[in-house]
User: What shape does this take?
Amino acid sequence: MKVKIKKLFKDAVLPKQAKQGDAGIDLTVHRIIKKSLFKIEYGFGVAMELPPNTYADLRPRSSIHKFWMLLSNSCGVADEGYRGEYKAVFYKIPFLSTPYKVGERAIQMILKNYHPVEFVETNNLSESERGEGGYGSTNK
Assistant: This one.
């Protein structure tokens, strides 16, 4: 899959896989956009044009536990039509967090395909083994 990418700043780092075959593609912090006691917004300095029917699933890297940070929306979605700078907002835990610095990898991006959906309204749904069983309905 080919993805068009634009550096918004000359010294921005292009996303890359740490190892061949990795699903996650690391994004490197280019700048700190906003900072407060409880949160920090990072800019990655790149914009992309994703292929049709593709989106970017943006998640914290597994090393986030070392920084005591939380990605504000747990994961982010960049739709194929988005052309702005890739950004992320993290919540800080006062007295514990050590925020990412410019030049550190903070987010991993996984490119995924999706199928366009057409909803068809109906009064009846087919029966299933689970039925209306929701949270905890399997007793596990």
